[in-house]
Amino acid sequence: MALLLWLGLSLLAFVQSSAVKNCHPGCRCEVESFGLFDSFSLTRVDCRGLGPSTTMPIPIPLDTAHLDLSSNSMGPLSDAMLAGPGYTTLVSLDLSSNHITKVSPNSLSKLRYLETLDLSYNNLESLSPSCFSGLPLAEVDLSHNTFQVFDMDVFTTKVHGEPVSVDLSYNQLMSVSMSFHGRVLHIQSLNLSTNRLSSVPKLAGLPLRYLNLDGNPITHIAKGAFTQLKDLVYLSISGLHELQEIEPHSFKGLQSLQILDLSNNPKLKTLNTAVFSGLDSLQELNLSGSGVESLPNNMLTHLPSIKSITLGRDIHCWRTQKQGQFHRQLGQVQHNEVLNCNVEGVVL
Length: 348
Ligand SMILES: *[C@@H]1O[C@H](CO)[C@@H](O)[C@H](O)[C@H]1NC(C)=O
Ligand SMILES: *[C@@H]1O[C@H](CO)[C@@H](O)[C@H](O)[C@H]1NC(C)=O
Prior knowledge:
Elements: H1 2-11, E1 14-16, E2 28-34, E3 40-46, E4 64-68, E5 92-94, E6 116-118, E7 139-141, E8 149-151, E9 164-167, E10 175-177, E11 187-191, E12 210-212, E13 220-221, E14 234-236, E15 245-246, E16 259-261, E17 284-288, E18 308-312, E19 315-321, E20 337-341
Parallel strand pairs: 3-4, 4-5, 5-6, 6-7, 7-9, 8-10, 9-11, 11-12, 12-14, 13-15, 14-16, 16-17, 17-18
Antiparallel strand pairs: 1-2, 2-3, 18-19, 19-20
Bound molecules: 2-acetamido-2-deoxy-beta-D-glucopyranose (2 copies).
């Protein structure tokens, strides 16, 4: 028993804060050891807010995996600022809140193992087309910058095909473009919330599973706006104060979509049944806080997988069997299914 306990404990990660070689005096360096007999270790270095007069690159221990350089007023990122021993092994790098206006083409090129990059809360308006090239990025946060246009081609990486999540929320984006040039863009999650997009951007060709368009000044969604996003599982179009119309067949092609968030769109008053055509996998529809107050009962014919619909304030509807009628011999079971809500008169 004691042996088992000892084994169990030695498998747990533990942290030594002291005695890390080459730890810059303004930083906190921690080694996390794990595995049997601490056979693996990860160095985490926190150099947040070092104050002015700090020169880059800051020396960091060899084999650092996680580095936090946020809030250091770094300004434009030059080729020399992230070079040196220790940098080549980084898996994650936080460069948020640094007044970064520019990322020079080779400033990140040595970070061959970099998976997570946080460039949020900077002053970026553009990126050079090759600045991420060759990096195995899985997560890139570019939120809270000043991009007005964005070219997705910056994420074409010829080395690996890892799926990447991109956060571009809280920018000033009016358009998003991509040209592919025969390459594949493995963007799986894209957050475009709180920008200045006036229509749904054309994202055909991206293997997206998650898309967020919340808080954009989109006034209407056109037929076929999402065609070719056949892998999309989650779509959020919430908090659009100007959205008045969703045309029939707008969601055509979203055959994998499971969750559709249309909440908090106060000017959206009606939805034609055909709006839902093509949503074969949809399980959850959120219309709470929108102007839509009732639902056509025949919408179930377009939503074979729906489980729950939320609307108004706390009105919840779900699919049930019609009570007291069991005309199974007359047709498919589907015909006996109706929408049932916790409030009367919602379903027309
Ligand atoms: C998208 O951005 C919004 C606003 O910053 C945030 O609330 C949401 O969690 C983000 N979603 C993802 C998947 O990053
Ligand atoms: C629907 O959206 C509202 C507002 O965004 C949120 O508070 C609520 O939790 C959502 N409901 C469901 C069932 O997802």
